[in-house]
Amino acid sequence: MSWDEISFVLGQIFGIIAVILGFISYQVRTRKRLLMVQCATTAVFCIHYFLIGATPALVMNLVGVVRNVFYYNKEKPFFSSKGWPIVFAVCSGALGIAAWEGWYSVFVVVGLVINTVAMSFASPQNIRKSILVTSPMVLVYDIFAGSIGGAIYESVAIISSAIGLIRYYGGKNRRADRVSDGAADTVADTVADTVGDETEDNAGNNVK
Question: pTM value?
Answer without folding.
Answer: 0.77
